Amino acid sequence: MDAGLRGGTGQVNGVPIRVLVAKPGLDGHDRGAKVIARALRDAGMEVIYTGLRQTPEMIVNAALQEDVDCIGLSILSGAHNVIVPRVLDLLKERGAVDILVVLGGTIPSHDIAALKALGVAEVFGPGTTLDSTVAFIRSRVKPRSLPLS
């Protein structure tokens, strides 16, 4: 991918990167998700924040309705080994495997390899800088096709 297509604006080919930030499950703490959402927005991306207590079905439906390039899941509850596979399965069922899926929160290091093997692009744990999260998403989102007129 030509780095010149991205610039520092959160865009690919002049189109803003669209990111859905979601808090699945019963976890009621969303400060980190809101900080990430704000950082992505400040980087020029369009961010849709779904709020708390989202089901995998709600997340995938919102991602498809909003035509996002990336889904960022924030999980602190320990339910990542149940929720993430379900989200990935739903994306496959709906033909949306091109949506980048990233994960943040308190994910034990011994679970990361298995989550990546399922299709998670990256896992951002505590201490990850906002700049590195933004840079990762910019580097991994593929350019959209030009709309047909």
Average pLDDT, to the nearest integer? Answer: 90
Estimate the helix proportion, in percent: 25-40%
Instruction: State the fourth-level CATH superfamily.
Output: Cobalamin-binding domain
Kindly estimate the percentage of residues that lie in beta strands according to DSSP. Answer: 15-25%
Instruction: Extract low-pLDDT stretches.
Output: 1-7
What is the count of DSSP helices, taking H or I runs of 4+ residues?
A: 5
Number of domains: 1
Biggest β-sheet strands, sense, barrel: 5 strands, parallel
Radius of gyration: 14 Å
Distance between the termini: 25 Å
Q: Largest beta sheet: what is the strand line-up?
A: 4-3-5-6-7
Number of beta strands:
7
CATH architecture term: 3-Layer(aba) Sandwich
CATH class: Alpha Beta
H/E series? EEEHEHEHEHEH
Could you tell me the CATH topology label. Answer: Rossmann fold
- Secondary structure category: alpha/beta
Gross morphology: globular
